[in-house]
Amino acid sequence: MVFARLRKSRRPLWIGVAVVGVAALVVSLRLGAAGPWSQSEMILSGLWTPATPGDAPAEIVLPKSWTRMLRDLYALQRSTDREHAACLDVVVGSPMPYKVQGAWNVADDPTVGREWTTGEIQEGEKSFVMLKNEETGCGAAHVALAHSHSADDSYDAPSDIDLETLLSTAALKASLTISFDRVCAIVKTGASSEKFVPKVRADYAVAMSSEYFPTLRSGKSWSWYDALAAARSAAAYAAERAATVLYCGKIDAPLARVAAANPDLGDPLFILETKALLVAGQHMSAGPELNFDFVPERDDTYVRFVRDIPWLASADAEAVAAGPPGQGYAAMVGAMGRSAVMPMFYGFAGPDPRFQEGRYFELACLHDDEASSWSCIVADVQGRGKRALRTFAAFYDPKIPEWEIVSADKGGYRTRSLEADGTTYTGSCDYGFAIRCMASGRGTLETRLYRFEGEFSEGKPFGRGVYTQLQTGESWNVVKKQDSGFERVVGGDPDEKSVDAVVAKP
């Protein structure tokens, strides 16, 4: 991914977070032969811009000197395991183009030569790169940016940040991303504008999830080709929503326009994703306790919770509470801010780990081939890589069915859960050395036969409480010891001879 805010000053242009080094590789060509300009040349140079995405051509062709640079970018990425980037430009020969009745004359003037140039290749980190214009001249004069994508993702589709960068930089006409021998190019139209930037992240999130949901439910393996096509169509959806157009193909061949995804905004799994965002936000800010079930449904309790969120605008709250689920998810992503969410096919990560170090939350909805089912987990992730510590903040399995949702509390954590046999628990919990928050402290356990309100330890009733038989409504003060059932307390200290009977086994 590439970050950018091009400036007209001589100050550095940052595209990302850190530049590790600069590879002194500059492509310098003689002015190209004169001849009529192709439609692709006109679009990439900015001499002609389609008014809207509907006016854009079905394919574009990249200049040969640009494609040579793209191959160099990826060769460096493969050898260093770091992303690389460069600026791309066009130098127009004499006579310079001029406007006739509002249109540039160059397309019909065979005497105008041009040279498609490239700047210095700059090296970044494994998953991002930035440029600076102080040494390379990569500023307002350049018409495009190009960068390689990590071999880990192997997708040529542009990321949400790549599209945001293009929209935020008025001088740029296109943004190119490469992986192996493939390249994608986002191209601006006359309707493109920086005003679309705040919605880019939400559009990516909705499109990526909607592309993945059918595969998750089907249990079929998602091949690399399926994932590549889905990544492209999701990016095309976000691009068109921002009045830009996505083209993809082989580096040395014409790039074809990519058909945009058509998200099913009515999919109830978007409700679960929205709830997962609220879980992440509650843990990061220690907000109000999450009193709703972690299931892909909207009930009155959930709707009231959403409408009571103080930082959620009324229009966004209404979209989440009553609109199409996908629209509600997009509204929540947008309301939480650009740095709060990194969209992924199987969920999201937030706060966006691309922008900060430390703790973040990750929603992962994955299929279990052995169980022939799927489940969704919200993990609290602390650290990076294999040494990262992960604990469950929420869990949902539709087959069992089973769910759990944990709230951060001043003194620890509280959880609400439903187990496979219908048992529910609401109360305090503690992670200890486990990945799930185990009942600990005061809470309420309810089965089909009884309800216990009292003390818990390591996920089980342990200590004093009130036992109620649900069939008769009778209640007793009881004590629960480690290896016994609930022992009814007639009076006094239960350790003395005041125990009346064992009323139930847990």
Characterization of the model:
- By secondary structure, the protein is of the alpha+beta class.
- The chain contains 10 helices and 26 strands.
- The protein has helices spanning 39-45, 64-80, 133-136, 160-168, 197-218, 224-241, 269-285, 300-307, 314-322, 325-336, and strands at residues 21-23, 59-60, 84-92, 99-100, 103-104, 114-118, 121-123, 144-148, 174-179, 182-188, 244-250, 255-257, 342-344, 347-350, 360-368, 373-382, 389-397, 402-409, 412-418, 424-430, 438-446, 450-457, 460-469, 475-480, 486-489, 499-504.
- The strands form 3 sheets. The chain has a 14-stranded antiparallel β-sheet. Strands 1, 2, 3, 6, 7, 8, 9, 10, 11 and 12 form a 10-stranded mixed β-sheet that branches. It has a two-stranded antiparallel sheet with strand order 4-5.
- Helix 4 runs antiparallel to helix 5 (197-218), helix 5 crosses helix 10 (325-336) and helix 8 (300-307) packs antiparallel against helix 9.
- The longest helix is centred in the middle third of the chain and has 22 residues, at 197-218.
Can you tag this structure with a few keywords?
10 helices; 506 residues; 14-stranded antiparallel sheet; alpha+beta; disordered N terminus
